[in-house]
Design a protein that fits this description.
Blueprint (H helix, E strand, L loop, with lengths): L2 H7 L7 E4 L6 H8 L6 E6 L2 H12 L5 E5 L5 H7 L5 E7 L33 H7 L2 H12 L4 H14 L5 H15 L11 H12 L1 H15 E11 L2 H14 L13 H8 L3 E3 L8 H6 L7 E7 L2
Parallel strand pairs: 1-2, 1-4, 2-3, 4-5
Antiparallel strand pairs: 5-7, 6-7
């Protein structure tokens, strides 16, 4: 999503080193590679083993200056160090889930029945079904409220806990039906066209994959890794992510304000006074045509910042 806009925002140098933090189906990686010379380099990351295998088969064989790492973008510094990379010229983080992950067997979608998994990395960690089976009602309510911004979090949590005493909740449609019954009972008319289970599914997915924690780590590491003039490009799909990215960029694009009575040397004042980033342009959203062609893109927001020093 925002394919052309995101790659343009990286302001690619043909001989530079770039990171695609979420390979997905490889759309952004392919376009980045088309703009690199033989001396340039692209390193992609993905938590999904299927995406990693796709990257190895379709791109790593064709491009000697491409490699893909099976890891989260929260491990940027450590993984790049293993590859002998200390600094980069740009990093792209396309958050959320990719289209292949919406297949029924992955458990992210309630449009068709499948196992309630929701793990981006299917090789490790507990599934959503396992978590729901043992989580306390209070913690379930907190996750749904905080990560899903769901007004009916308490009622939904209670309904899930009651339902699991009768039967284990192991499929996506089971969970969607429980949530839908609660939301529809409390609203005369559903809000817009959004499925009533949307917020709850989003909340559980974010929690299971620790998405906000992963993003926080990746943002800070990106500043440390970028060369001066390097770009950080982030595409978010819900308000929690976008607020985090917006706040992070704004904070690092603002010089430190220190009380006048703190004794500091001139060199220390210079170090504290300079911002690390410069915000590039305003937030970018998909155009009408892209939304028509891919309805999932309607919530996408792209923000761009450039490393100053």
């Amino acid at each position: 999503m925002l394919l052309q806009e995101a790659v343009d925002a990286l302001a690619i140098k043909p001989d530079g080193i770039y990171v695609d933090g979420t390979f997905g189906r490889g759309g952004h990686s392919r376009l980045i590679l088309s703009r690199l010379s033989g001396k340039g380099r692209l390193i992609a990351f993905d938590r999904d083993p299927v995406a990693v295998e796709t990257g190895k088969k379709e791109l790593a064989i064709a491009f000697q200056n491409f490699c893909i790492v099976h890891s989260s973008f929260s491990q940027l510094q450590g993984e790049l160090k293993k590859l002998g990379v200390q600094k980069i010229d740009g990093v792209l983080l396309d958050l959320g889930i990719s289209s292949p992950q919406l297949e029924a067997e992955r458990g992210f979608s309630f449009r068709s029945d499948g196992p309630l998994d929701m793990r981006m990395d299917t090789s490790r960690g507990q599934t959503a079904a396992q978590w729901i089976e043992s989580v306390s009602e209070a913690d379930l309510e907190r996750v749904i409220r905080e990560y899903g911004e769901e007004r009916y979090a308490r009622s939904i949590a209670r309904a899930i806990v009651v339902a699991r005493t009768r039967q284990s909740i192991v499929t996506t449609l089971q969970l969607a039906e429980i949530v839908g019954a609660v939301v529809r009972a409390r609203e005369r008319k559903r809000e817009g066209k959004q499925n009533p289970a949307t917020r709850t599914f989003q909340a559980i997915r974010i929690f299971i994959n620790q998405e906000l924690e992963e993003l926080s780590l990746a943002l800070q590491q990106s500043i440390d890794l970028l060369n001066p003039g390097g770009r950080l490009v982030v595409i978010s799909f819900h308000s929690l992510e976008d607020r985090m990215v917006k706040r992070f960029m704004r904070e690092h694009a603002t010089a430190d304000v220190l009380p006048r009575d703190i004794p500091l040397r001139e060199i220390e004042l210079q170090r504290f006074g300079k911002p690390a980033l410069k915000i590039i342009g305003k937030a970018v959203k998909p155009g009408h045509q892209e939304v028509v062609e891919n309805i999932r893109s309607r919530s996408a927001v792209m923000r761009v910042a450039e490393k100053i020093s």
